[in-house]
Specification:
Blueprint: H1 4-12, E1 24-25, E2 29-30, H2 34-43, H3 69-77, E3 79-81, E4 91-96, E5 99-109, E6 112-119, E7 125-130, H4 133-136, E8 139-144
Antiparallel strand pairs: 1-2, 3-8, 4-5, 4-8, 5-6, 6-7
Length: 151
């Protein structure tokens, strides 16, 4: 089973991949939902229900996110934990405008925790940056992959 550093290292291999709605291909196109799904698929992770998590899941959503669908799917397939307990390798759901419709993987750096995510509102690609106050205020939920190995 993968460790938290392996999850972060895998997520970082997607940095620079262009944003594409429902994209699921490293180096070609990826959206925010695709990043944790593809990372989980590469690492062979399973959901709380024992099914494989991969890029073929959850392809039925609109280009303009609405509602808390992303948050609800994380709550269904991953292990919920308190935001104050977030660690590298966790998955965060974030509010964009009014809904929890964005998702990112937590990374780390010497300056603190980071977000690794496919973001169409900025660089329009997978990026990593520090979780500053602006992003921290957007966090709605924190989840771990069920099979992550704690070190």
């Amino acid at each position: 089973m993968p460790t938290r550093p392996q999850i972060v290292a895998c997520a970082r291999t997607y940095i620079g991949t262009h944003f594409a709605h429902q994209g699921r291909l490293k180096g070609v196109g990826l959206d925010c939902v695709g990043l944790p799904l593809c990372v989980a698929g590469e690492l062979g992770l399973k959901s709380t229900e024992g099914q494989s998590i991969n890029g073929d899941m959850n392809r039925h959503y609109s280009p303009q996110p609405t509602g808390d669908f992303v948050h609800q799917m994380c709550a269904k397939y991953l292990v919920r934990k308190g935001v104050s307990a977030m660690q590298p390798g966790d998955v965060l759901t974030l509010r964009i405008e009014t809904a929890a419709c964005h998702v990112a993987i937590v990374g780390d750096s010497p300056e603190g925790l980071t977000l690794i995510h496919a973001y169409s509102g900025g660089a329009e690609k997978v990026v990593e940056h520090r979780i500053d106050d602006r992003w921290h205020k957007r966090i709605v939920g924190c989840f771990s992959f069920p099979e992550v190995v704690e070190e």
